Amino acid sequence: xxxxxxxxxxxxxxxxxxxxxxxxxxxxxxxxxxxxxxxxxxxxxxxxxxxxxxxxxxxxxxxxxxxxxxxxxxxxxxxxxxxxxxxxxxxxxxxxxxxxxxxxxxxxxxxxxxxxxxxxxxxxxxxxxxxxxxxxxxxxxxxxxxxxxxxxxxxxxxxxxxxxxxxxxxxxxxxxxxxxxxxxxxxxxxxxxxxxxxxxxxxxxxxxxxxxxxxxxxxxxxxxxxxxx
Length: 229
What we know:
By secondary structure, the protein is an alpha+beta fold. It contains 6 helices and 15 strands. A 3-stranded antiparallel sheet has the order 3-4-6, with no helix packed on it. Strands 10-11-14 form a 3-stranded antiparallel sheet. The longest helix has 12 residues, at 25-36. The N and C termini lie far apart (57 Å).
């Protein structure tokens, strides 16, 4: 008997950082030109493949100091922009030029490695339906993304759930493009039509504090449970 391992389980990926020292700018342009003419992936032998090569950082003398600029689409992190003095604008917590060569050998990094996404839910208590309409109008007037302190970026704000008292009790209704998962429709009773095991209105506010969800976040468990319409 023998063990068989698929080839994709045996492959290893490495990132190799190469530092090139030159005093001639024309050599940097020649390297860029040469790299643009190569088709990747580049097969070196039966077991080795180069998937891509990128120039990330170019450092040049600027008077008595150095300036290190990032090649597109690479950037300096906010901490590097502050520690080594950005020589361009800091936008969304990054810059593309700093006024020194980092002492730890750090180079520019892809933007995708620097950002963290957070979803924040805010509950607003009001007895006025007019206030709810004002919130809708205010949100419709914003232009996203909104940048705070060059570090935090708000990409979108949505009103998801509105709960109002009526003659039968508390009804919690979803805003456009948001839905209650079918377990909530079944647990609290639905006050509108059932569609694809979801509803847009339930007869109460969930004890777990859950709000209406975008349809893309309703998992298969929610979508598969049965509700008699």
